[in-house]
Amino acid sequence: MKKALVSGVTGQDGAYLSKYLLDKGYEVYGMYRRTSTPNFWRLDYLGIFDKINIISADITDFSSILDAIKTSQPDEIYHLAAQSFVRASFESPIATANIDGISTLNFLEAIRMYDESIRFYFAGTSEMYGKSVQYQNKKLNEESPFRPVSPYAAAKLYSYWVTKIYRDAYKLFSVSGILFNHESPLRGLEFVTRKISNEVARIQLGLSKELRLGNMDSKRDWGYAPEYVEAMHTMLNSKNPKDYVLATGESHSVREFVVEAFKVIGENPGRYVKSDRTFLRHNDFDLVLGDPANARKELGWKPKTSFKELVKIMVKEDIKRWNLWQEGERFPFDAPYYKEMDMKKKGREILE
Ligand code: NAP
């Protein structure tokens, strides 16, 4: 039985990937950061919490990573843990550099010193391309230049390069996926797609009256997360270690996402959507569009869920959750968030 160690197991991709690997017969070890209130709602939601060996570890601490590797003895490591929110990287740039940059070096060094046969996947991102105006009308591929414009993207780019350097210099099987946005009902509420699906669901049920958004003209290449984790596994099980762009090859604006989301509830967005400058990003860029041709040709991977289907899946799932919440059901979905809503319902103030 193959063994995999997954960092960031409590996140969207960590949860879907763990499920995918368990279904393939893997023994899965999930690394999480110890917090006073553990955040396992996604693993509960997928019904896999009891099937994963949970390891508490600090990815910014080399010894902690080495211990996790010694405990799990993995064939494959998927390093997905990150401070993954671009705006937050401007608020805590140094922590982001450690969490999203140095952590990768910790893994690579631990593999180099302990067992060079372990295969390593790093979660790279389209944010590494940044604001590359001259390339904006072209699809971005593995050869496109990187121009990061946030501390998040710069830290990720460090990780990307060091993963490549260890592959070339030490012959490790270490690769990066350059993933464009991928969404799902397990996406965090701080991200615009889930913010929209959640608020549209609340509007339908009379729990909210408005949706406040920043730049509605930003265009992104949005895919469906469960399909992207499959490609991570294929990359680590390929003959040759290589980096790949994973994307849909189609772009849609935030405005289009909003329109599709309101269609699901049969409403007109105009009545509800308000523009709010506080949600504008520093150094935002208008268009991100990926070219997954190499992944298609060499990995046999291609996204299946359309943009419209993705929006529908997300809105419908949020409606289901809020319906359950209204019926008084207590459940693991976004548990801390729903608890906060419980408190608000009872008239308790939450201090921001
Ligand atoms: P996510 O839902 O935000 O999950 C991030 C994971 O990292 C969570 O398990 C989180 O733990 C963990 N984490 C955060 N800070 C940490 C720290 N200081 N120490 C240890 N763990 C920490 O992100 P995702 O959407 O699953 O994305 C997975 C990876 O792909 C990330 O590296 C992200 O940057 C990258 N990526 C994502 C996308 C996308 O569109 N989703 C696109 C490109 C690249 P808690 O649960 O405790 O917060």
- Structural class by SSE content: alpha/beta
Output the number of helix runs.
12
Strand content is 5-15%
- Unique ligands: NADP nicotinamide-adenine-dinucleotide phosphate
Radius of gyration: 20 Å
Name of the CATH homologous superfamily of the largest domain: NAD(P)-binding Rossmann-like Domain
| Shape designation | globular
Q: Outline the biggest β-sheet.
A: 7 strands, parallel
Sheet with the most strands: spatial strand order:
3-2-1-4-5-6-11
Q: Count the domains.
A: 2
Order of helices and strands: EHEHEHEHHEHEEHEEEHEEHEHHH
Identify the quaternary structure here.
single chain
- Residue windows where pLDDT falls under 50 for at least 5 positions: none
Q: How many strands appear in the DSSP assignment?
A: 13
Helix content: 40-55%
| Cα-to-Cα separation, first versus last residue | 47 Å
Task: Describe the protein's architecture and organization.
This protein is of the alpha/beta class and 352 residues long. 43% of the residues lie in helices and 14% in strands. It has two domains: 3-182 and 223-246, Rossmann fold; 185-221 and 250-288 and 306-341, Alpha-Beta Complex (UDP-galactose 4-epimerase, domain 1), CATH 3.90.25.10. The chain has helices spanning 12-23, 41-45, 62-72, 86-91, 93-114, 151-170, 192-204, 225-236, 254-264, 293-299, 307-326, 335-345; strands at 3-7, 27-32, 53-56, 76-79, 119-125, 174-179, 182-183, 211-213, 219-220, 223-224, 244-246, 252-253, 273-275. The strands form four sheets. The chain has a seven-stranded parallel beta sheet with strand order 3-2-1-4-5-6-11, with helices on both faces. Strand 1 (3-7), helix 1 (12-23) and strand 2 (27-32) form a beta-alpha-beta unit. The chain is globular and about 60 Å long. 45% of the residues are buried. The protein binds NADP nicotinamide-adenine-dinucleotide phosphate. NADP nicotinamide-adenine-dinucleotide phosphate binds next to helix 1 and strand 5. The site of NADP nicotinamide-adenine-dinucleotide phosphate has 21 residues, from helix 1 and strand 5.
